[in-house]
Design a protein that fits this description.
five-stranded parallel β-sheet; globular
Length: 237
C-alpha cells in the first residue's frame, strides 16, 4: 500500500462523523496502579506547573528525560503498553494537573496492531480537544509512530496514521508533528538494528539520541513566550 497525503485527513474526519472509537480492549483500571503511583509521588513532592509533560507508551516511559533534556523541566507520565485511548481517558490525571506549556505525546505504536490507522488519528484529535478544553494555550507535540524491526509488517499503516495526524496538526499553530520515520532507517530503507534493543521494538541509547535531537528544537524554542507559529516552524522538511 502506498501512503498518499491527498484525502487522508478527509477520511479520518468522515469516520469521526460516521462513528466513534471502538471500546478500548482494556479499561482504565488496568493502569490504576501506575496512575495512582504518579499521584502519590506528586503529593510527596509536587512537580512544577507550566513546564513540559511527556505522555504515551513505553517509548516515553523508558526515555531518560533528565539526561536527554537537562536544561529543561520535564515530567514523565508515560505508561508501558498504553494506547492512544488511554491517553485520552487519563488526560485529567496525567496532563491537566500540571498545567503544562507543552505536552509531548507518543501513542499509537501499540494501537496499530489492533485498530485502523484512522482510529488512531481520531484518538489524537480527541486528546487535543480534551487538553485544549482545559488548557487552551498549551502546545501539543505529537511524535510520529516510529518504524521498528518487530512491527515492520505494519509500516504502511503506521505511515498512514502519521500522514493524517500531521495534516491535522497543520491546521492549528498550537500543534506540532515530529517525523521520526526516515531518521531511524538505513540505506536499505529499513530500521537500523543498532537503534533498537533486542526485542526489535524499543529504542536503544543510540535510538534515543536521535529522538532527542529531533524533539529538542520544539522544546527549546518555546522556553520563553513566543508566537505559536514558531512552534510549527521547527518541522522537518
Amino acid at each position: 500500500m502506498t501512503v498518499t497525503r491527498r484525502g487522508a485527513f478527509g477520511l479520518a474526519l468522515a469516520l469521526a462523523v460516521a462513528g466513534t472509537l471502538p471500546a478500548a480492549a482494556q479499561s482504565v483500571d488496568r493502569w490504576e496502579r501506575e496512575v495512582a503511583a504518579f499521584e502519590a509521588a506528586d503529593r510527596a513532592s509536587a512537580p512544577p506547573r507550566g513546564e513540559i509533560v511527556f505522555v504515551g507508551s513505553s517509548t516515553i516511559r523508558l526515555w531518560d528525560l533528565n539526561a536527554s533534556f537537562p536544561e529543561l523541566k520535564t515530567i514523565n507520565r508515560g505508561i508501558i503498553s498504553s494506547e492512544m485511548s488511554d491517553a485520552v481517558r487519563l488526560v485529567d490525571r496525567l496532563v491537566t494537573p500540571y498545567a503544562p506549556r507543552i505536552v509531548v505525546v507518543y501513542a499509537g505504536d501499540n494501537d496499530i496492531m489492533g485498530i485502523p490507522s484512522e482510529q488512531i488519528t481520531i484518538g489524537f484529535e480527541r486528546f487535543v480537544r480534551a487538553v485544549h478544553a482545559r488548557l487552551p494555550a498549551t502546545r501539543i507535540l505529537y511524535i510520529g509512530i516510529k518504524p521498528s524491526l518487530l512491527r515492520w509488517g505494519q509500516v504502511d499503516r503506521m505511515r498512514l496514521a502519521n500522514v493524517m495526524i500531521e495534516q491535522f496538526c497543520e491546521r492549528d499553530d498550537r500543534l506540532g508533528f515530529v517525523d521520526v520515520d526516515h531518521a531511524l532507517l538505513g540505506w536499505d530503507e529499513k530500521p537500523r538494528p543498532e537503534l533498537y534493543v533486542e526485542d526489535g521494538l524499543h529504542l536503544s541509547a543510540a535510538g534515543y539520541q536521535i529522538l532527542t535531537a529531533l524533539v529538542r528544537p520544539y522544546l527549546t524554542s518555546t522556553s520563553s513566550p513566543i508566537q505559536n507559529s514558531e512552534f510549527r516552524s521547527q518541522k522537518q522538511p
